Description:
alpha/beta, Rossmann fold, 9 helices, about 15% strand, elongated, binds magnesium ion
Amino acid sequence: MKIFxxxxxxIFNTKKFKHDLISIFLKHGVTLSDFENSYYAFQKPNKTKGxxxxxxxxxxxxxxxxxxxxxxxxxxxxxxxxxxxxxVFGDVLKFLQMFPRRNLxxxxxxxxxxxxxxxxxxxxxxxxxxxxxxxxxxxxxxxxLARKYAFSPKEDIILIDDRSEQLSRTKKTQQRVKTFHICxxxxxxxxxxxxxxxYSVKNLKEAARIIKKEKMQ
Length: 217
Ligand SMILES: [Mg+2]
């Protein structure tokens, strides 16, 4: 069995993380409206180029407009990003430790450097075989890896994600992959329904129970 697991809102409490990240900006002279304006001002024009939110780029944008203490912000955010274990949901470690490391992959989406910092800060990279930060098409990457690593056709492939579009795309193209829609009450998208999935779970404990019950291997 190979398990591909999403990071934001699945492994990581991104809502709380974002809230605490904003607090650092507020502490160093950036108003909430400056934060929001610079967040989106940076994000929108770059989205088409395939770039994503990165606090360092945001600090640069704020600096240009004389908003906030750039040096202090950079320092404090760098310390903040190095210790993020507290944002990892309580059932994650137990779940990952149930399976051999070689069968586990993290598939994340976002700004490459920033996402990797978050995942490293969360302290879970060592429990999985590889971490990928890639474009918005997870199933394509899963199937590429299935060929690259020559997964046995008898082996179950599992994808756990909170975003319905990833799971719908998977169900349309790859029936072989078992899709788990995780809908944590702490997640940012917990109010969105996902119609095309194999299983719907509230947390990873529930996912583990299904994997066991269905004798996936
Ligand atoms: Mg997610």
